[in-house]
Amino acid sequence: MIKLLIIILIISNIILLYLPNRKKIKKLFYKSEINEVDIYQLHEIFKTEKISSNLWGPKKETIIKSFCISPNNLITGMTSNYEAWVLTSLSKISKNIFEFGTCSGKTTYLFALNSPENSKIISITLKPEQINKIIKKKGDNKISFRNIFNETIYEKFLFSGSNVENKIKVIFQNSMEFDEKQYPNHFDLIFIDGGHTYSVVKNDSEKSFRMLNSNGIIFWHDYVPGKKSAKDVVKYINEISKNKKIFHLKNTSLCFYKNNI
Ligand SMILES: C[S@@+](CC[C@H](N)C(=O)[O-])C[C@H]1O[C@@H](n2cnc3c(N)ncnc32)[C@H](O)[C@@H]1O
């Protein structure tokens, strides 16, 4: 009886220790295969400026117009505020921007608020009535496929009715059918955050490489080794990193590729 009680006590202690620390524990087992870099290695605008001997602050190039979404406002599929700030800072120096996956339009709105006045932002996404035509391909992860359904719920966006909406063109189309040949070497900034299944990530990435201009940069969202819904994103990026210089940005789930490195 005492033995049984001790065993139960040990198991419950392990569970109690595991639950609040599961992200850290998972990190020990699932290592990133991609070279991790600090933010100042992404672009010189992220180098901090000395204010005093113990205080370094952001350059003015990275001061952005932003907003926060309250945790009570249950919006699905968003970037973290840090990730959004990184992408948005780069949008300030980007004339042509493309996004795979609009969802609520959080990132699209930030791009429009901060990019130069004559910038154009194209975001491709699905609306609820198109979801039944989406097919799971062989090798696609089940959870990622299910998430496409969970995230395809909007057809109006956070930027709808705003004074920057005219900078944005939303294309309601399956990205698998999108013809990227109309935009050869065109975009300065591409954000891949659409369907997270292997077939869709591969499709969106291959099209992005063709649409990126010579100084352009591609970002992928959700590079999280060990996270079930990100399994295909991680698998695809690990695979292509053998032939392409892809970097993982520290403290984010963002990976990036730059044409001019
Ligand atoms: C993770 S959310 C995007 C979040 C958004 N980028 C943001 O930062 O707020 C994924 C979006 O991708 C769209 N999507 C999924 N599969 C797609 C496909 N095959 N073609 C186009 N859009 C797709 C979904 O409808 C959803 O709007």
Task: Characterise the protein shown here.
With 261 residues, the chain is α/β, with parallel strands linked by helices. Helix content is 33%, strand content 19%. The protein has seven helices and ten strands. A hairpin with a 2-residue loop joins strand 2 and strand 3 (55-57). Helix 3 packs parallel to helix 4. The radius of gyration is 20 Å and the shape is globular. The protein starts with a helix and ends with a strand. 36% of the residues are buried. The mean pLDDT is 94. The chain binds S-adenosylmethionine (SAM). Residues 77-79, 99, 101-104, 106-107, 124-126, 148, 151-152, 174-176, 193-195, 200 line the site of S-adenosylmethionine (SAM).
CATH class of the largest domain: Alpha Beta
How many DSSP helices? 7
Total beta strand runs: 10
Indicate how many domains the architecture comprises. Answer: 2
Helix content estimate: 25-40%
Q: Give the termini separation.
A: 65 Å
Could you give the topology of this structure?
Layout: H1 2-29, E1 35-37, H2 39-42, E2 49-52, E3 55-57, H3 81-91, E4 96-100, H4 106-114, E5 120-125, H5 142-151, E6 168-172, E7 187-192, H6 198-211, E8 212-220, H7 231-240, E9 246-249, E10 255-258
Parallel strand pairs: 1-9, 4-5, 4-7, 5-6, 7-8
Antiparallel strand pairs: 2-3, 8-10, 9-10
Helix pairs in contact: 3-4
The structure holds S-adenosylmethionine.
